[in-house]
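Repro case for the chain-ordering regression, as requested:
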Amino acid sequence: MKVNLRVWRQKDPVDKGRMVDYTVEDASEDMSFLELIDVLNEKLILSGEEPVAFDHDCREGICGMCSMVIDGQPHGPERSTTTCQLHMRKFNDGDTITVEPFRAGAFPVIKDLVVDRGAFDKIIQAGGYISANTGSAPEAHSTPVPKAAAERSFSAAACIGCGACVAACPNGSASLFLGAKLTHLGEMPQGQPERWERVVNMVETHDDAGFGGCTNTGACATACPKEIPLDVISQLNHDYLKATVGGRKK
Amino acid sequence: MHWTASPLSSALGAVATQVSTGGSAKASATPARPKRPLIPAVLLKFVMALSGFVLVAYLVVHMIGNLQIFWGPTAINGYAEWLRTLLEPVLGWEGFVWVVRIALLASVIGHIWAATLLALRAKRARPVKYAAGNKVKGSYTTRTMRWGGVIVLLFVIYHILDLTVGVANPVGAHLKPYENITAGFAPDRWYVTLFYVIALLAIWFHLRHGLWSAIQTLGWNSNRREKTLKAIATVFSTVLIVGFLIVPISATFGWI
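-- result from build under test --
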């Protein structure tokens, strides 16, 4: 199949950047979208041009590295799928596909389609962990966890931190990411001791990075490749209010 | 993104999330980040939710009060007088009405102030727009909250000039709501009725998302309750707006 690509090209963080048109004549519908870019890059290299820089790692939909907005949708038109697991059979022969980086002030473009998602690392560093003395693993049944809490924590822990929620949010907010991390730890007994300072510190770091505020549009949950539910944002608000207005954080 | 606990390790009960050390090695190449906002976005949303609830509570009382017009001029004109006698020994004549007005004004100012800050922050959070447009969209109601809110504000200003101050009303008599309403929505002033109907529909849109959104902001939403809460928000807004709509429509069609 033949596809026309409109790809964002940007030399470095200070370059203004522009959309460039390419055509890939020999695409197969069994290719993943990243393989399509690979084919394009081989052609570019052979003709002495600079290949398109893009983030990728596991290519099996679990690492969260691939980050492209395809035709205005983070990770492309297929629901609950990362770009690497999006296949060309989802498109038609002769389609023109627009490929852009995740757009957010807090995710500055490094080159072409590669953005710096270090802001997410900073949010995690602010509290997305538990402090525990490691050693031999304790007996698993010594700390009972209710089934519902375990399930909820587990589905929140499915977040791979790809940033699609930010890319989709009309406000450029990372609330779904924040909510996922807070729910993941907050539903577990191990997450309780640091629960209230965690939420305050993570929200502060989120705002520091220049992410916007949530208006509950639900675009993030729609775009999320791991189907993180919208109610984790309600959990985030709940914990934050309890910690600040409710005076839980000392 | 190596700090993320893999689903497998979570399933085994390990919840610790690791932090990679070299996470943002390229941060030095990035332009200066915005300074910490004075008020966290979550608290601004809290202001929006609480002020919104005050306004909705007022709307409910306002709507029920309006319906007295169907019991004739004495009922609704008497109701207008009665409102001014509430807590008269403490607050004096009309004192209660002024307390409510000040609370409403404070809520409206708080609501608009927080919305403006959030809108400006959202604008800064995405300096470069998508060439193909953002195709992941919320519902129509979520996308029209900001401009819909501006339309509602303009309507409220006109409405106060019409039926509170009276300058935009053909009668405009103080404490004579029956006369003001029947004259204001007279059949030959059908365009005023039409404007009210459109504005009330805008409020319906605003409330449908706003009510549910406020619940989510206050942290009372959950996956299990989400559908029910959204349905309640829709039914509540519909009943409220229908209650408001029947008064001007009835006046125009001469059913009062």
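Ordering looks correct now. The radius of gyration of chain B is 24 Å.
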